[in-house]
Amino acid sequence: MKANTQQCRRTVLASALLLMVAAAAHAQSTPTTPWQEVGRVLQTSDVFASGYHRYNLPRRDLTLRIDDVTVAPALALGAWAGFSGGSNDATMMGDLIVTSAELKPVVAALVRQRLATTAVHNHLVGENPRLIYIHFHGEGPAVDMARRLDSVIALTGTPRPVAVATPRPLSIDTSLVFRSLGSSGHAQGDVAQLSFILVPEKVELHHRTVTPALGYGSPINIQMVNPERAVATGDFAVLGSKVEPMVNALTTHGITVTAVHSHLIDETPHLYYIHFWADGALVDVLAGLKAALDASR
Predict the structure, then answer these.
(1) What is the CA radius of gyration of the chain?
(2) Per-residue pLDDT tens for 148-167?
(3) Which of 1, 84, 85, 264 has the least C-beta neighbours within 10 A?
(4) What is the third-level CATH fold of 168-297?
């Protein structure tokens, strides 16, 4: 009886070992899509929307302040990489957010990795610490570009793997925000986010049609500081003929224009990006942003 019990135990253990080996082999043989592989390399998840694959790389390691406001990462620290087209011949664009100390090694690494630096500039004014936004561009196999970009991101303090943000109850009136700006978006906690396409015609770069949301989306991010006060930032991507009327609309409503510049190189038609910082009562901030949107049309 004792021998039979031992034999049964050996059989059970052997069967369990075989199942573990088979499971491991299956896991190794289970194919992943190229876009899943890009996410694995960049250590963040793929958010497919508006015709492109987006990989968010927020700088949650930084505590950013503008005047007396502690800026939520979702408001102005949203570094990212986006890919459009087929995985074997993709177009990659995005923003890296770096500190002054990170700027030199990051730009040098982009050069080494054969990724184009298309802009190096500010988006904000008076922030602490000072931040620099690097816009980059690449064309080719998506996974290969992700591996090259990964070595660049590693030179920054970007936390990875990117953790999913803990859900927080809403403390911003999304009904008012979305109704006032004439579009829906999404929100979490004290931040609401919307995006618009303000360029009506097709944009081309290197004889490729640029996916609008990838190359010239116009994001607006709004944060409630307290029940009586909101701040907002973002940028409007527009044709040159719209710059002056939009700047006029923003300044007339007390919103600071923090930058007017390019993000791309050699695109047709040429686009300009208007960055802004708003601070005041939510209804006043929304009125100024709506005036700017109206001026773009």
Answers:
(1) 23
(2) 999 999 999 999 999 988 88
(3) 1
(4) Gyrase A; domain 2 (3.30.1360)
